[in-house]
Write a structure and sequence with these properties.
Length: 1026
């Protein structure tokens, strides 16, 4: 995980791998060299290089720092200094001293007098000098050349790294983001002493390590920790990369084991990562304080010094002191408790029975209450604050069912003795998969007795995701964050697949279809990235937690499974993968190889060959259909919304194209498969076939364009009989048509032509997809104050869905799919100020208030009811009063969305007060900003707010994090004018290292340009079309 919500929050729920520098190279690279007379000054001030420090020079020049050549430094010294500061490095002795003073090219002083040379002599001398100078320059600038006594013999001399300066002024002996590979931790013994009164903690970390190759230093991570004592060693710190180095006078030898003991102190974090403090009010109104952890991706180092990278797996034994009225939890069961002379108690936990990455370590100090159940020799418990114990039963029941399912499906039993699911009152992510101690937001784990199935679906989805991680991510872990999708894509896929089997009443298929559509929209941008992509900075690590790693990762796994023969090859392949790499770290190729090796049919498929095209390049294909008689030509190209000469790609995918036709379109065995590997290929179909529908069930991650004739045939078929295609296929056509309109391949008139069949549509997937797309256009027009077109769009939406809106009830609804349909329809109706919708919502709120909360509003209708109520001054105040008292978190969150939807600017200002965390929890600020941004009155206010408060925002939410991504998208995605584009570009450019380089910024700018392009292209014709 870090699992996050995949539905939109406003209208309705809506290999090129990182080949990072190798850290270890062959010993043959360190053979003794002849004496060297180098052009660069002999760098005696730098520590000797370990094997894992050596990097190859680029061919272009002998670089001191990435992008900065020696000569560039001399020519533009000031630029070089600023670049060095940005890289966090310090240049030492930079000047002419870089060059040898014994250069053979020293100019001699001219004699005091000289006879005048002849013209011929002058010409010869000039030519000679030109030749000498030319040869000198060629030799001097020859790439990869080191001058030795015997000339330019060696071609691959490693460049000297430039070392940064540690906090005490000494040279820090490491100059890379990734840690050296010279040391491997084996085990940690952690003792933590939190003081929840002073909001501080002290700790002792004892690390047992093995030496992989000779070294005089150990480099590990530490952030905001004050090292108070280290055992007979010197500790240096380089804060910009959150690294510390322990130096030794004697060399540690390969094969040795050593033990490092570090004592330290720190403040509990006031953000949502590391070891942080949280609080809540109990039933008597008293403030209760607790401490919890969130270490993924880079924050274990904020709680204890450690090798904080996924590949440094080790065992952990943890001790935590506490007051007698508190309890503690960690990854393993408690072994014993000891009373201390200070009156505190020391809880000691069993040593982990598995090796773990540091980001999976977790502990909680709180006063929580559990309910428990034994399943397959594992004690499963759900913890909450005492007041919410009654809301934990559904989570326990769901977790037990899913644990049994995963044990059976993976054929590997969950390896720990216990599995705790803990609801944290103040928690930013949806949940976190810590091994044996999964932490959740309260809204992601707790379900009230009157909760709707839609609310239970949310909780079950998050639990299913996090439990899947106990195998994908915990047991087998990606080697580095560039392959995060191996964790998150698999967990996302398994959450949908498992719930379809374990809890079919939750009807999870509609949600999975929706998130696949949304993933396609993100991946159509030029600012997207490959599933497996290079990650070189902490901000880039944070940005990997996005829809590409989660939803696209899950989507391509679904496509792969759907394309494999039978229903067992995929399962057997992942079982082999889990068994082969249990306890280890992997990359994407390991997964594809495991799936290729499992051949259960006569139709052997090279999975690695097929799937590498989907993970090593960004984006996805557009498949164009051209039919002439019985010949159907399929052509693929990159579906790229922003395309020009600079971004033109020749990308090709290995596409398992599925298709159906008018003679057989509904039964599962109607599906046929054609593999498109090249730019264009042809298949044959009977000439009598009227139409083809590709990408059956939308299981493939691509978009289809049928051409004018193909679209016309499909539209006619739907108008004649809406049930000629499945609801998923109808939704797929709607999504593809809108996407092609955004690309400019079809006109908006063609979009409306397809939507004409919607008056006969009653199924959830096509209705919700059409509503989402039309609402997006409606809001863009509204923000541009195109009042005439806004009115026309309202009329058009109501012409399609007005009848269906009027048919919706306001009572309890049992079916999840019908709840999804109803909430989407009624939220749109009330947003368009349909009188009947407004009246019903007001009446339901009045009944709720007058009953003093005993009259229940159905869960799927709460947001629309609270949003309507918040539009009047009196009801807004009443809703605020209810918000401050209600205990059920899902209901409280919908009240907050209602409060934030107000058109009153004073109240909008109050809504974003969550930055202070007083009435509104800071964790809810991204949701509030998203809600405020959706309204005409709020969207400019929200944009101004993030500009004014950017520094405070990135203090609470890390640069590049999912929360920051969401805030940027919410506040900019509805801009469509050049003035707003200039404003957004100017603001983010000014941030520099505080966020200007984020991928989400590039995505925001690209989205504004696309909005502007779509409006410029279509507005002139709206008079005719609408």
């Amino acid at each position: 995980l870090k699992s996050f919500q995949t539905k939109t929050e406003n209208v309705f729920f809506t290999p090129y791998r990182a080949n990072l520098p190798r850290n270890m190279i062959e010993n043959s690279m360190f053979e003794e060299e002849p004496d060297v007379v180098d052009l660069a000054k002999d760098s005696t001030t730098f520590p000797a290089l370990d094997p894992d420090e050596v990097v190859y020079e680029p061919r272009s020049s002998r670089l001191l720092v990435r992008g900065l050549g020696e000569n560039e430094m001399d020519e533009d010294e000031e630029d070089c200094e600023s670049s060095a500061r940005l890289l966090g490095m310090s240049f030492m002795n930079r000047s002419s001293a870089h060059r040898s003073t014994s250069s053979p090219y020293t100019r001699q002083s001219p004699p005091r007098s000289c006879s005048r040379p002849s013209a011929r002599t002058l010409v010869v001398c000039v030519l000679f000098l030109v030749i000498v100078v030319s040869m000198t320059m060629v030799l001097y600038f020859l790439p990869e050349c080191t001058f030795t006594k015997s000339g330019c013999r060696k071609q691959t001399t490693p460049a000297e790294p430039v070392y940064p300066i540690s906090t005490n002024g000494e040279m820090f002996p490491w100059a890379q983001l990734r840690l050296p590979q010279s040391i491997q931790p084996l085990s940690y013994e952690l003792t933590l002493n939190p003081d929840l009164d002073k909001m501080t903690f002290t700790g002792t970390t004892v690390i047992t390590m093995t030496v992989r190759h000779d070294t005089k230093r150990i480099v590990l991570h530490s952030a905001n920790l004050n090292i108070t004592k280290a055992t007979d060693v010197t500790v240096l710190e380089y804060k910009p990369r959150q690294q510390i180095a322990v130096k030794f006078s004697e060399e540690l030898k390969a094969g040795q084991q050593c033990v490092l003991t570090l004592n330290y102190s720190a403040n509990l974090s006031h953000t949502y990562d590391g070891f942080y403090n949280s609080s809540y009010s109990d039933k008597d109104g008293n403030k209760r304080v607790l401490a919890a952890t969130q270490f993924e991706p880079l924050s274990a180092r904020k709680a204890f010094p450690c090798f904080d990278e996924p590949s440094f797996k080790a065992t952990f034994q943890i001790k935590i002191s506490r007051k007698p009225d508190y309890m503690t939890l960690s990854n393993m069961p408690k072994a014993k408790t000891t009373s201390l002379p200070s009156g505190l108690q020391l809880d000691e936990f069993e040593k982990t029975s598995v090796k773990m990455s540091t980001y999976l370590v977790a502990f909680v100090v709180a006063n929580f209450t559990p309910i428990s159940k034994n399943v397959s020799e594992t004690l499963v418990s759900v913890y909450s604050v005492p007041e919410k114990k009654e809301h934990t039963e559904y989570a326990l029941d769901t977790a037990c069912k899913l644990l049994e399912f995963y044990n059976s499906f993976f054929e590997i039993v969950y390896p720990l003795k216990k599995l705790d699911l803990v609801a944290i009152p103040d928690f930013l992510a949806g949940a976190m998969e810590n091994w044996g101690l999964i932490t959740f937001r309260e809204t992601s784990l707790l379900v009230g007795k009157q909760s709707s199935l839609l609310e239970k679906q949310v909780v079950a989805s998050v639990i299913a995701h996090e439990l899947a991680h106990q195998w994908f991510g915990n047991l087998v872990t990606m080697s580095w964050w560039n392959d995060l999708w191996l964790n998150e894509g698999f967990a996302t896929y398994m959450q949908y697949m498992s719930l379809q089997t374990v809890l079919p009443k939750l009807d999870i298929g509609n949600l999975f279809l929706d998130v696949r559509f949304r993933a396609l929209e993100k991946d159509a941008l030029n600012s997207s990235h490959a599933v497996s992509t290079e990650v070189n900075t902490p901000e880039q690590v944070e940005e990997m937690f996005d829809s590409v790693s989660y939803e696209k990762g899950a989507s391509i796994l679904l496509m792969l499974n759907a394309s494999l023969p039978g229903d067992q090859q995929f399962r057997k392949g992942i079982i082999q993968y889990l068994n082969q790499f249990s306890g280890l770290n992997t990359d994407t190729d390991n997964l594809w190889n495991s799936l290729t090796q499992v051949d259960v049919s006569t139709q052997h498929q090279n999975v690695s060959e097929m799937m590498s095209s989907w993970t090593s390049q960004k984006g996805f294909p557009l498949v164009t259909v051209d039919r002439k008689g019985d010949q159907v030509t399929l052509t693929q190209e990159h579906f790229l919304l922003t395309s020009d000469n600079a971004t033109h790609t020749s990308s090709l995918w290995h596409i398992p194209v599925t298709y159906i036709n008018d003679t057989c379109s509904l039964a599962p065995d109607c599906k046929q498969v054609f593999t498109l590997k090249t730019k264009s290929e042809t298949l044959k179909v009977p000439q009598s076939i009227k139409w083809l529908k590709l990408n059956h069930g939308n299981t493939g991650f691509y978009i289809v364009h049928y051409g004018d004739d193909g679209w016309a045939a499909l539209i006619d078929a739907l108008i004649n009989n809406v049930n000629v295609l499945t609801p998923e296929d109808r939704a797929s056509l709607i999504h593809n048509m809108f996407a092609l309109s955004r690309l400019g391949r079809v006109s908006f008139r063609q979009v409306l032509s397809l939507l004409n069949y919607m008056t006969n549509e009653t199924e959830t997937p096509p209705v919700t997809e059409a509503l989402l797309q039309l609402n997006n256009i409606y809001r863009l027009l509204d923000k541009r104050q195109e009042t005439d077109f806004v009115s026309r769009m309202k009329v058009r939406i109501l012409s399609y869905f007005g009848s269906l809106m009027r048919n919706q009830t306001w009572d309890e609804e049992i079916s999840v799919s019908k709840q999804e349909l109803r909430s989407a329809l009624l939220e749109t109706a009330c947003n368009l100020n349909v009188d009947s919708c407004i009246r019903q919502a007001k009446a339901l709120f009045k009944k709720y208030v007058e009953s003093n909360g005993t009259a229940h509003i159905p869960g799927d209708l709460q947001r629309v009811v609270f949003t309507v109520a918040a539009q009047s001054e009196e009801s807004w105040s009443t809703l605020l009063e209810k918000y401050s008292k209600v205990s059920y978190d899902a209901e409280k969150r919908k009240m907050l969305q209602g409060l934030a939807s107000t058109q009153d600017t004073r109240r909008i200002a109050w809504s974003v007060s969550g930055l202070q965390g007083n009435i509104i929890q800071t964790q809810e600020l991204p949701l509030v900003i998203n809600t405020v941004s959706s309204s005409f009155s709020g969207y400019l206010f929200a944009w101004d707010f993030i500009q004014e408060n950017w520094n405070q925002l990135i203090e609470k939410f890390p640069v590049g994090s999912f929360s920051i991504q969401k805030i940027i998208k919410s506040t900019t995605s509805q801009f469509s004018t050049q003035a707003h584009l200039n404003q957004v570009q100017g603001f983010f450019s000014s941030l520099k290292e505080r966020g200007s380089q984020m991928r989400s910024v590039q995505e925001a700018l690209e989205t504004i340009r696309l909005n502007q392009r779509w409006m410029d292209r279509n507005l002139p014709s709206f008079n005719e079309w609408l």
